[in-house]
Amino acid sequence: MVSLFRSEEMTLAQLFLQSDSAYACVRELGELGKVLFRDLNPDVNAFQRKFVSEVRRCDELERKLRFLKAEMEKESIPIKTVETDYTAPLPREMIDLEARLDHFETDIREINKHQMALKKNLLDLIEFRAILSKASHFFIEAEDAVFHQAQEVVPDEGSKSLLIEDGMPEKSIQSSRPMSFLSGVINRDHLAAFERVIWRTSRGNAFFRHVEIETPLEDPKTGDMISKCAFMIFLQGNHLRSRMMKICEGFSATVYPCSDNAEVRRDAYAQVETRIQDLKSVINETEDHRYRVLNGTSNDLVMWMIQTKKMKAIYHTLNMFNVDITQKCLIAECWCPVQELDNIQCALKRGTDLSGSSVPSILNRMITKLEPPTYYQLNKFTSAFQNIVDAYGVATYREANPDSFILALFTVITFPFLFAVMFGDSGHGLLMFLFGLWLVLNEKKFTRQKNMGEIFNTIFGGRYVVLLMGIFAVYTGLIYNDCFSLSFNIFGTSWTFPNISEGFLHDHPTYQLDPNVSFPGGPYVFGIDPIWQTAINKLTFLNSYKMKLSVIFGVFQMLFGVILSLYNSLYFKKYSNIFCEFIPQVLFLNALFGYLVALIFYKWIVVDVRTEPQPRLLILMINMFIKFAQKLQPSEILYHGQETVNLVLVVVAVLCVPWMLLIKPFYLRWKHKRKLRSYRPKTRKGGNVYVQLSDDDGMNDEYTTYHNDESQLSENSYDEEEEFDFGNIMVLQAIHTIEFCLGCISNTASYLRLWALSLAHAELSEVLWNMVLHIGLSFKGYVGSLLIFATFCGWAGLTIAILLVMEGLSAFLHALRLHWVEFQNKFYSGEGYLFDPFSFEKMLKEDEDLEDIL
């Protein structure tokens, strides 16, 4: 029971590993996943540690694997997933892995290099072909432009057109200066700016023509499809030609040589077409070869990634160890559960045998003052509830855990129950239960799926919480007799209608029943009588009922939290806390609010409609203090002896305040002085220091041993412990006392949120029924059928969106707050840290590179 009530017992162990077997031993411990190593070299730079070269080799392997994975994703090659795990390779196997990955990377890079060169050549040929196919069109346009220019301008030797070509038809005019042209291809996005720059640079003396290439071309570097245009520039003069070449270079335009002879262009076009077909064939063969290489690699990629990450984790862990003077032994310190020591010993033995070392590995338990980590044995059911507790704070080592006691109490039950008190509707609870059941039944399928969204992953992680919240919501809905704002009439009503006919009820829509006549007395069979569904004063009755229930649940949970602090005090042997804190806290809480709960039950059981007087409980609690030691009026007395009980309880509550405030600080002061008188340092033996100390209450003396490298630290820490500041302790105790006393009042009032949210949920449900669905049910015929369908869709959508999602989230958050603030602060300090063991399984689940593969 203790293992379920508290965290696992932990121990600090020291490992002595031979250098040859250290790697294999750490590998076996990683597969076991029950050891948390301490960094014994916190002041050493990461680049100055012993195994930094091995870590860099693993980094290089990971880089190569990421490169191969990226290449496979480009080719849409599915990466083979694995069902079984792979052990980390031994150091001698790491060389073979490096050689294989280097070979594959070199091959892929060479293939990529050749493929890119081939695609670049193919792109050049396609662009050149486009120019050759459009060149004749460009020359014809240029001839037409020159002919029209010649007709408009009177020709002479100094004003002839610049764009006249020798051998033109008769309609063209011979030019006295030779004409040249540039042809090339440019990106379509740069075309407009390119044309403007040409016109401004040539001052209108260049003739520019272009045409878009119909098929988009593939960029060999990025693989993107780019739209390009073929162009041709007609100009005169070498100086202007050189300027045009620089402009083409600036706009990344590719210039290709093109002949002005049509016969030559036809021959060149045929040759280019042949070369394009040959290059396409070569490129296809290269891509097939690349695909075959990558597809063959995909079978082992996951195995290599897992092995590499395990190797890197092992070397990172080895860097946390110390090396002895002989450089033949590694010394490590680790936290581990006591019950796992035998398994750890077996793992060390397997590692030693696997490495072939003849010297066994040694595990030595250490005594230390360091705070151990907190570790719980969890499963998929309790892990979600434990996460709720850990979100408030990780439990201090061996502190009472509100989620683990017998796996059936505390948060596992109280959290969904308090949620259901605020969400009490059997219809809504049934929908939530079915949703949680669907998640549980399909958990294997959802576990295998990846990237389902952060919100869905969060809900799926708490699927058992949703399931229990739905179950308890159905139960509380049946208690409230509330299902989609309607009541069940299974057992009938306990109220009677003597001498009242149906005709009388038809003529009188409202009628007040006299409880003395119509109510026989006694509780209803189960839940609330359905007659309250039709009562005008339904809200008044339910408010009183739910408000009292909220106070009862709150006081019982707070008292339970105070009782758990007793278990912590007994376990940690802080017996002074029992007398100085626990007893006055229990007396104070019960003297005020325990008494209120007793009055509620007394009034429910003893008082009925025939009892006189019937004072209100709120007035009774106020009179406890306002009319202290005064005689009460007969109308203010609920039971015999009330004045005496009120007097005693107020005196007890008032005396508990100085009890909590003063006794513990003065007791600690007395114990400190006694401890100083009883302290006697002992002699040092074999590197160990023996110091005589006292236990918490100074009853039994004992000797505590500190091992070798902690001896100096223990002496210094003892000197620090002797610093006792009575003022600080008094201030802290005053803060705790005020917090508890005021907290009892504020926390009890805070539990009224159970009533408030339950009321809001019931009223919203009733509004949706009356204002939406009830309207559709009031019509008949075909119109009624259509309205029923429309109103039902609207009602169902609003119910899911508002009552299930929004109200469910609101109730969840309020239940969370009640557990964190009102319940756990009575006993739960939450100052520990989680046991995060060196585990390959956990490491691989959290790795981003393997998230989409495993």
Q: How many E strands?
A: 14
| Low-confidence residue ranges | 153-177, 682-722
The helical percent reads: 55-70%
Radius of gyration: 43 Å
Shape: extended
Distance between the termini: 37 Å
Question: What's the rounded overall pLDDT mean?
Answer: 83
Q: Helix tally? A: 25
Main β sheet profile = 5 strands, antiparallel
Strand residues, percent: 5-15%
Total domain units: 3
Instruction: Classify the secondary structure makeup into a structural class.
Output: alpha+beta
Describe the structure.
This protein is an alpha+beta fold and 854 residues long. It folds into 3 domains: 1-39 and 321-375, Alpha-Beta Plaits, CATH 3.30.70.120; 112-143 and 178-276, Alpha-Beta Plaits, CATH 3.30.70; 381-663 and 726-826, no CATH class. 59% of the residues lie in helices and 9% in strands. The protein has helices at residues 2-5, 22-32, 52-74, 91-152, 191-202, 238-250, 262-318, 341-355, 382-392, 411-422, 426-441, 443-448, 454-461, 463-480, 502-507, 515-518, 538-571, 575-605, 617-626, 642-678, 711-721, 726-750, 753-777, 781-823, 840-846; strands at residues 10-18, 36-37, 180-187, 207-212, 217-218, 225-226, 228-235, 254-256, 322-323, 329-337, 362-366, 681-685, 688-694, 701-706. The strands form 4 sheets. Strands 1, 2, 9, 10 and 11 form a 5-stranded antiparallel sheet that branches. Strands 4-7-3-8 form a 4-stranded antiparallel sheet, sandwiched between helices. A hairpin with a 6-residue loop joins strand 5 and strand 6. Helix 3 (52-74) packs antiparallel against helix 7 (262-318) and helix 10 crosses helix 23 (753-777). It starts with a helix and ends in an 8-residue tail after the last helix.
